[in-house]
Amino acid sequence: MNFERRKGVSVIIATLLLIAIAVAAGIIVYVFVNGLAGNLTSSGGGQTTERLQMQSFNFQLTPQTCACVGQILQVFMINSGSASTTISAVYLDGVLLAVTTIPDTGTHLISAINTNAYTAPSTTLVNDFTVTCTGTNGAASSLCFTATTAKTTYATGDVGQVVIPISPAAVAGTSHTVKVVSTTGATYVFSVTAGRVG
Predict the structure, then answer these.
(1) Residue 45 has pLDDT above 50, yes or no
(2) Phi, psi of 173, deg, nearest 5
(3) Could you tell me the pTM of the whole model?
């Protein structure tokens, strides 16, 4: 019986080849993961560059000169991010409010506009329901603004406020959630307490 002898790769060379293949595969994986991580950190951070923060809130504001059943929530905000942001929607306790232009300085029943959210510069305040309204100053449930300027876009460092009329007034001590959504989909959630300033 004749056995044909075949030459094969020696054990040492086979081991060296396996080591070389493993090292090459490791290098390829390292380069791929490094490139992927670099792309994610450099191009995917657009949404995190805009940032609205609540500076304070006033949930105590009620008319001082009339027997109003309504209440006003003011949320003062600042854009502390590195990109501008534009408000597209405001929610109160999960209910979508109509983001609309501040009404003129006439009187407005709180009960008629309590599904709205008004955006304003920080210098535009809700008056004490008597100063700028004419004709029916201090009338029950009337709301007056000191200006009619709307503000939905916040550049870096800008401050402003969201004014939310509520009727009937919220129960003192209850917690409520205000959610502000930007045009890019960034979401900012703030917690406020009725009857308090924070």
Answers:
(1) no
(2) 90, -10
(3) 0.68
